[in-house]
UniProtKB/TrEMBL annotation, chains A, B:
<dbReference type="InterPro" id="IPR033248">
    <property type="entry name" value="Transketolase_C"/>
</dbReference>
<dbReference type="InterPro" id="IPR009014">
    <property type="entry name" value="Transketo_C/PFOR_II"/>
</dbReference>
<dbReference type="InterPro" id="IPR005475">
    <property type="entry name" value="Transketolase-like_Pyr-bd"/>
</dbReference>
<keyword id="KW-0479">Metal-binding</keyword>
<keyword id="KW-0786">Thiamine pyrophosphate</keyword>
<dbReference type="Pfam" id="PF13292">
    <property type="entry name" value="DXP_synthase_N"/>
</dbReference>
<dbReference type="GO" id="GO:0008661">
    <property type="term" value="F:1-deoxy-D-xylulose-5-phosphate synthase activity"/>
</dbReference>
<dbReference type="GO" id="GO:0009228">
    <property type="term" value="P:thiamine biosynthetic process"/>
</dbReference>
<keyword id="KW-0460">Magnesium</keyword>
<feature type="domain" description="Transketolase-like pyrimidine-binding">
    <location>
        <begin position="279"/>
        <end position="445"/>
    </location>
</feature>
<protein>
    <recommendedName>
        <fullName>1-deoxy-D-xylulose-5-phosphate synthase</fullName>
        <ecNumber>2.2.1.7</ecNumber>
    </recommendedName>
</protein>
<comment type="subunit">
    <text>Homodimer.</text>
</comment>
<dbReference type="Pfam" id="PF02779">
    <property type="entry name" value="Transket_pyr"/>
</dbReference>
<comment type="pathway">
    <text>Metabolic intermediate biosynthesis; 1-deoxy-D-xylulose 5-phosphate biosynthesis; 1-deoxy-D-xylulose 5-phosphate from D-glyceraldehyde 3-phosphate and pyruvate: step 1/1.</text>
</comment>
<keyword id="KW-0784">Thiamine biosynthesis</keyword>
<dbReference type="Pfam" id="PF02780">
    <property type="entry name" value="Transketolase_C"/>
</dbReference>
<dbReference type="GO" id="GO:0046872">
    <property type="term" value="F:metal ion binding"/>
</dbReference>
Length: 585, 585
């Protein structure tokens, strides 16, 4: 076995082309095993095996610095840079993250998980190198849909003016997570079809030198191309034509579902653990919107390269036709587009996961909220308990969104309330509305749900009690119910339970009412405390004798945490919250 | 006078070419008068007079919808759409804003002030039109440096896939605010030099049809071009070559200083009101950094198209050489670049105004703070009292920046403290550091200033008193001093005065100490309350008997406000703050 002897890129350089080819087969075999047992990014890594081997054959990492965009395609890189055991030994699968990680290896330079950042980050490495008078190649590897993000373009535009060594490998696998979108991808096609010779060339138009490699999964071709650009004294793009998912037929044939996989059976490609096929908020959302679209041609769904987050699988996208738009990974454009559509009288609904809406703060503020256009934003997975990679945390959306004037950010507590709010949002034309889609599983209301939310910042008094009031926001409403239950069982306190519904403001009347027969208000939010909902309540009661306890997570970046332990560590179990409350009474 | 009879675009259409040319002269004359008396954006408007006339001659606004990027070039548009009096009658100068404004006219579709948004917003108008089955042209007017922002690229990429009417006028005046930067601008030059015929064409590479107009200040040429693309059934770029500042020699010759002007003498071009030539934080910063650069080649200044905000006038840019980088209007790239440079051992300092740092939240979080690289960010003009156009408000940076983990956001109170903090930031390599540069004029310390800020979240006890503690942040420190003074004069209270220094955390020890002999803590911050510094203090004291009053502005968008009235309305004068405090004792 060749791979067994690869402890660093130095070992790659000693191999013959035949051995390199053997190595690529062994690496795919190891990836297949690991992914079938453990899950992870499939297509991006299978497509990049040969290019990664060739990069390490030609360049001298870590003196030469390779920056992988999104870095979900960096598994082969990790296998060749001293971390192969994490791909060969099931016991060690969790020794590595799914993204590049400087704490693991000197061959990784940044923690990266969002797209379109590599050219800019690598540009910084090149500038730092030059300022210090050092040598070495700097290589950004970008592709797989990442080119459509504005930051990538800003980086390419900057690179086009450099007069120093800078190499950009464009991994053109003709895909994003779903199919690619945007006029640029037609130029990539023209370039592929003309073997890189067509005169109208996006990269050259950006001031970059250019080299095309048609056989982007052929080690020999790649080595030869990388050797040509090694130690180059100006910026150059190496455009490589690769096959996403290469080497495993189901992944080659069905690229979108095989972008990322759960554990699966290698023979059939079927998932090992059947999902429960129950309802989920994504599918329910898509079906709801499809029905709306039929009734009203002004309704249009928008995604930024992640259509299935909002349930728009390929069949549903087809059913929606021109009433569904995938703008590619371009959240800034998605928000501005939604604002424009709303201004023109359309009914846009942009579905996006909490971690990615961060990419469009200025558009939320300027393009949408200053203009006060009635677009709807669905923020999925906003919770402490969803994605747990440090680059994909979903608990900063409340401080991000809720402190923007004019925005109405709603926190439904269950399925019925979510759809009542979405229905209202589509009906009204006075506000930009964001809805934090419940993230902790489907729950149902056992009470009547309001249909009109136009009187802003009116919290729902679900149960009137005394002494302690629980303001349990959105996904944390069931947690509030649990705390109320324990308070009653344990010490006989009939706590007041409030569903705040509105993240973006305080219900002063209700908060004042609580002053008469409550000693303590506890806020519960499924996000960080800093800049969040609870702090607004603490401010409100600042000069009153009312005690306020804010429950939420500390402001910190955490990585691959155990959710239960993380919640405990932040005092967020029902028992801990109850204890903390009782300690104050 | 032709202009006197122009009450709507209909009146433009009735004119002969000769009259249109007369009109352009009269418009320039009116602009010159207004700007020389009132100040405003000069170069962008002088360059766009003819194109605006031609747009309104050919298209039927407001059925045909024109969206101006940044919209600081929309003065001629306003003159032709029923608002000419605001340019002719000095009494009415303030009837219009400096940007497009739907509340003024049906010919304006969005409030716009940040760059690079027009293509996306107009794309939304086109999509809304098509969803509703309506007709009409949609035209985005972009240029003057705006193309380099990522959002513009995302919009162009989207546009490249459309199969519907969509017209993008690229106003190529070869400038941004300062000179243009980025590889793309070389392609624009090639296009100009080849009369639009060179085969490598950025816009065509994005999938867009293309038309070049060499004489972009010639009404006849422009009318002919716009007539060609009117009612087109696919997306097209009309690339017009214009002269920024055309018609006023000083502005043609010195484009950067004439981008925006204060009132000036028409004969000489000299400003009417001499600035006091005193020290300002921009100039002091540039001079400090220039000295640092000489000592240490790793120090590099970065701007995103607004170099003079941090004092880097043309001469200072020349002096800095390769140690100063203007990335063009591309804040996302600027932040990621700074992170990369810091990772490589450089000492990057990115200077940016508060309103524009909003454009890079995800880069601050992902590229910089998750990676914890020691870059320095200087946030200028962060205050309620600086820019007062609704699109340029500078009071959201505290909630934006201070709730990101790992970031150290510092609030110096005076010149000496600012430079001590900057010095420390350049010296340390443990944290990304942002400094909120004081914005209310130069003040000096009459106390010793710390030189080391590495022990985080240690507030400075400036004066120990009893009963009332004032936590007066950054620019509002002098306000805290005034309140303390009044409290003593009026009721004999010796208030405690604290300089928090760190916006990003609480000094628990100091806050606990206050509990022993204080009844009330007041926080003073020069920004909005929501998500800000004061709320963290309110949360901290949530279960203590300590009363907390947070002073700051309400969360709202305000436009062209009178600063003094705005501060009063938010209870932010020293007298009001004192009263509010006394009412609680």
């Amino acid at each position: 076995m060749v791979l067994e002897n690869i402890n660093s890129p130095e070992d790659v350089k000693k191999l013959s082309l035949e051995e390199l080819n053997l190595l690529s087969g062994e690496m795919r075999e190891a990836l297949l095993h690991r992914l079938s047992n453990h899950g992870g990014h499939f297509g991006p890594n299978f497509g990049m095996v040969e290019a990664t081997i060739a990069l390490h054959y030609v360049f001298n990492s870590p003196e030469d610095k390779i920056v992988f965009d999104v870095s979900h395609q960096s598994y082969p890189h990790k296998m060749l840079t001293g971390r192969k055991e994490a791909y060969l030994d099931p016991e060690k699968y969790d020794d590595v993250s799914g993204y590049s990680e400087p704490s693991e290896s000197a061959h990784d330079h940044f923690v990266i998980g969002h797209t379109s950042t590599s050219v800019s980050l690598a540009g910084g490495l090149a500038k730092g190198r030059d300022l210090k008078g050092e040598k070495g190649n700097v290589i950004a590897v970008i592709g797989d849909g990442s080119l459509s993000g504005g930051e990538a373009f800003e980086g390419l535009d900057y690179a086009g003016e450099l007069d120093t060594n800078f190499i950009i490998v464009v991994n053109d696998n003709q895909m994003s997570i779903a199919e690619n979108h945007g006029g640029l991808y037609r130029n990539l096609q023209e370039l592929r079809e003309s073997q890189g010779t067509c005169p109208c060339n996006f990269f050259k138009a950006m001031g970059l030198d250019y080299l095309y490699v048609d056989q982007g999964n052929d080690i020999g071709s790649l080595i030869s191309a990388f050797q040509k650009v090694k130690d180059i004294d100006h910026p150059v793009v190496v455009h490589i034509n690769t096959l996403k998912g290469k080497g495993y037929r189901p992944a080659e044939e069905h690229k979108e579902p095989w972008h990322y996989c759960a554990p699966f059976d290698i023979a059939t490609g079927e998932p090992k653990h059947k999902s429960d096929d129950g309802e989920d908020y994504g599918t329910l959302t898509a079906d709801y919107l499809l029905a709306k679209m039929k009734e009203d041609r002004r309704v249009v769904g928008i995604t930024a390269g992640t259509p299935t987050i909002m349930g728009f699988t390929e069949d549903r996208r087809l059913a929606a036709g021109r009433q569904f738009v995938d703008v590619g990974i371009a959240e800034e454009h998605a928000v501005a587009l939604a604002s424009g559509i709303a201004k023109a009288g359309g009914k846009p609904v942009f579905g996006v996961c909490s971690s990615f809406i961060q990419r469009a703060y200025d558009q939320l503020s300027q393009d949408l909220c200053i203009n006060n256009n009635p677009a709807t934003l669905l923020v999925f997975w906003g919770s402490l308990s969803t994605m747990n990679d440090v680059t994909h945390l979903c608990f900063f959306d409340i401080p991000l969104i809720s402190n923007i004037p004019n925005m109405v950010y709603l926190a439904p507590t269950c399925k019925e309330e979510y759809f009542a709010m979405l229905e209202w949002s589509l009906r009204q034309d006075s506000h930009p509305v964001a809805i934090r889609v419940p993230a902790l599983g489907l729950t149902h209301a056992d009470r009547e749900i309001a249909t009109d939310y136009s009187e802003l910042n009116r919290y729902e008094m679900v149960k009137k009690g005394t002494k302690v009031a629980l303001l349990a926001l959105g996904s944390f409403f069931p947690l509030g119910e649990s705390v109320a239950h324990i308070l009653k069982e344990k010490v006989g306190i009939e706590a007041t339970l409030v569903n705040p519904r509105y993240i973006t403001g305080t219900d002063d009347t209700l908060l004042d009412t609580l002053k008469t027969d409550h000693a303590l208000v506890a806020t519960l939010e499924d996000g960080i405390q800093d800049g969040g909902f609870g702090e607004k309540i603490a401010r409100y009661y600042g000069t009153s004798p009312m005690k306020v306890l804010n429950f939420g997570a500390r402001k910190e970046f955490v990585d691959r945490f155990d959710v239960a332990a993380f919640l405990r560590d932040n005092h967020l179990t029902a028992e801990q919250i109850t204890e903390d409350i009782l300690a104050q009474l």
